[in-house]
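Project outcomes to date are best conveyed with an example. Our students and postdoctoral researchers have been running inverse folding experiments weekly, and each run begins with a structure described purely in tokens. The record below, which covers 656 residues, was selected by the lab manager from last quarter's runs and is presented without edits.
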């Protein structure tokens, strides 16, 4: 794992300024690669490259970057891992027995594959998680490439006649040509959903390269030639009904064999490797296969909480003892979370509203004391229907029935419901009546959502928004509520409707929230986290597995649990899911109450253009336990905190 950065600069730019900016961008990704760094300025192409290295394969200087191909045509800065690089190395050596390898690194294999086969063919051959910049000196082209599911980040954009790219937003903002401005659309989406769907980022003029895509930049003409998808995620995840696997025995057998092979590939490392273990089924299955089928000795890491309602450490310990893992546990309190909170905007340069970033950061820091690489269970929920909203059959059924009503009838009902909500807002200040009013109001919001949703994608969007009704951003307009181009990749009318939810999650929530969290937390502490479930082989097998094998008798991830029963006792499997979460609601009423109130009352609210009155009312409801607004408030607080931290660098304007 590494950090990469670079930029195309004007031809009259002084090399002195180029090197200053390059070092600034490199320093901003330094924590991603603490072991070494390298830079390259190609003045004939007006291009500068920087690389920060976390050494995983070939710890010698032979694996340093930027790295050039044998002919000198290509040069690369690479972040990530190519899991099948040993196989690809053997294939190259078979075709050319006299080929001379300079290192045992996966980057050299990738670079030689590109020189021999070309970029397009290479991208179909490799498996891994990666983001890289490739310079074709002969053709004067720059390519930016991101992995299939979005495990590794890559930002880019034009700023004052400079084209910049980097592994994080802070690196982009560190360049002297950048005058950063907050994107209104991104801020609006963030407070609703807690993440920013690709290709948007928090900054105007800066984008995230979407997963499974690559960008071509003509260095002479100084323009983006195209952005091209080399992997169709929608097709991989929504296999036609005729090709689905319906047999549990067949699907389970294929899944077992595939996971063993994949975990074996992902376990190759020249540094110590472990597993992040919650009490959940996903990480338990990864740990089980790693220990039983691949590695005789496995270090596992988990967190405990002083608050009993979130603590799962004893359940994780039982799993670890059953599997005979070398288990490590850390118990944390709100004080530990506050320590991470103070560094949150350094950990996540693009704001992230998932509160589990706090414990995830702590466990990554904890694991890094023993190992450099960890396996995780990321991706299983999205691929095998693990989230509770995949099981909302009654809501879907009601929406289908209501959609049959004439538009005029639905409009009249919505108007009546709005009047009813206004009546509820004037109810008594007596505590239990206020709580009853809040519950009724929430139900009314849901019913209005069902009535105004024209298709299932609208229903998904509204139900997953933390702020209903809208109006939090004072400049908010209805068109901003769109998820953007990624949601358009979901076929309209795709059934069952659960497939639409899963596909939207895989296209946006997975890369822009879950994987953004994992990458940010792990790389800040120099830990590489690998996700077996996100290997292409598992993704496509999940897409080919019939829905009835994923949810059965209201039991989610059914096939994963059936496989896990072969490794650990059933009573350890059939427990409520917790994950690396935190007791957010109680902390916002307790140790985080003063911090949250101070942020809401700060001038930053006005500078961003948020509606303080709405936020403060939600905060008061939450503080008085009238309504649980914890997640909604958290999204706003993270955005405010991010803006406050970056205020000196941001252009002072609000979003109104």
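After processing, the design step wrote out the following sequence:
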């Amino acid at each position: 794992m590494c950090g990469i950065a670079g930029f195309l600069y004007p031809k009259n730019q002084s090399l002195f300024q180029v090197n200053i900016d390059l070092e600034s961008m490199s320093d901003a990704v330094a924590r991603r690669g603490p072991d070494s760094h390298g830079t390259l300025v190609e003045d004939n192409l007006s291009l500068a490259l920087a690389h920060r290295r976390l050494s995983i394969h070939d710890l010698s200087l032979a694996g340093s970057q930027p790295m050039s191909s044998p002919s000198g045509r290509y040069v690369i800065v690479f972040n990530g891992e190519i899991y099948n690089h040993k196989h690809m190395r053997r294939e190259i050596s078979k075709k050319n027995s006299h080929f001379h390898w300079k290192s045992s690194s996966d980057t050299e294999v990738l670079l030689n594959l590109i020189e021999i086969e070309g970029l397009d063919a290479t991208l179909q051959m490799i498996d891994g998680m990666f983001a890289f910049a490739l310079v074709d000196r002969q053709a004067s082209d720059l390519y930016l490439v991101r992995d299939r599911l979005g495990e590794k980040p890559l930002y880019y954009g034009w700023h004052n006649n400079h084209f910049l790219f980097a592994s994080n937003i802070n690196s982009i903002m560190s360049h002297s040509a950048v005058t950063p401005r907050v994107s209104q659309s991104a801020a609006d989406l963030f407070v609703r959903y807690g993440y920013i769907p690709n290709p948007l980022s928090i900054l105007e003029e800066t984008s995230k390269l979407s997963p499974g895509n690559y960008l071509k930049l003509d260095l002479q003409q100084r323009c983006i030639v195209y952005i091209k998808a080399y992997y169709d995620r929608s097709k991989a995840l929504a296999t036609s009904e005729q090709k689905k696997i319906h047999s549990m025995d067949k699907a389970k057998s294929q899944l077992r064999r595939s996971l063993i092979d994949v975990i074996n590939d992902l376990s190759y490392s020249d540094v110590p490797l472990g597993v992040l273990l919650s009490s959940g089924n996903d990480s338990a299955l990864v740990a089980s296969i790693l220990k039983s089928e691949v590695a005789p000795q496995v270090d596992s890491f988990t967190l405990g909480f002083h608050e009993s309602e979130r603590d799962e450490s004893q359940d994780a310990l039982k799993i670890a003892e059953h599997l005979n893992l070398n288990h490590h546990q850390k118990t944390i309190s709100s004080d530990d979370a506050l320590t991470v909170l103070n560094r949150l905007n350094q950990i996540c340069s693009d704001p992230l509203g998932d509160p589990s970033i706090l414990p995830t950061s702590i466990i990554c820091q904890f694991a890094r004391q023993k190992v450099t690489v960890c396996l995780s269970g990321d991706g299983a929920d999205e691929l095998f229907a693990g989230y509770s909203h995949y099981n909302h059959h009654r809501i879907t059924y009601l929406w289908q029935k209501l959609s049959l009503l004439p538009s005029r009838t639905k409009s009249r009902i919505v108007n009546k419901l709005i009047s009813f909500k206004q009546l509820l807002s004037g109810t008594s200040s007596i505590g239990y009546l206020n709580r009853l009013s809040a519950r009724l109001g929430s139900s009314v919001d849901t019913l209005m959502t069902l009535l105004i949703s024209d298709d299932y994608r609208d229903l998904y969007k509204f139900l997953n928004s933390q702020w209903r009704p809208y109006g939090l951003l004072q400049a908010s307009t209805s068109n901003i509520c769109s998820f953007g181009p990624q949601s358009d990749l979901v076929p309209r009318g795709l059934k069952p409707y659960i497939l639409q939810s899963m596909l939207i999650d895989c296209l946006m929530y997975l890369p822009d929230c879950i994987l953004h969290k994992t990458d940010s937390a792990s790389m800040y502490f120099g830990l590489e986290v690998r996700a077996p479930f996100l290997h292409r082989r598992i993704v496509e097998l999940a897409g080919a597995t019939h829905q009835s094998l994923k949810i059965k008798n209201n039991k989610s991830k059914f096939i994963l649990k059936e496989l896990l029963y072969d490794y650990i006792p059933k009573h350890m499997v059939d427990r409520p899911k917790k994950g690396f979460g935190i007791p957010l609601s109680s902390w916002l009423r307790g140790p985080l109450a003063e911090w949250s109130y101070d942020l809401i009352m700060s001038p930053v609210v006005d500078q961003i253009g948020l509606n303080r009155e709405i936020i403060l009312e939600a905060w008061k409801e939450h503080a008085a336990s009238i309504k649980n607004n914890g997640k909604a408030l958290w999204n706003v607080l993270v955005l405010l905190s991010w803006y406050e931290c970056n205020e000196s660098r941001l252009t002072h304007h609000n979003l109104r």
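Residues 428-433, 476-481 have pLDDT under 50 and may be disordered. The first strand starts at residue 2 and ends at 8. The training component of this project remains on track.
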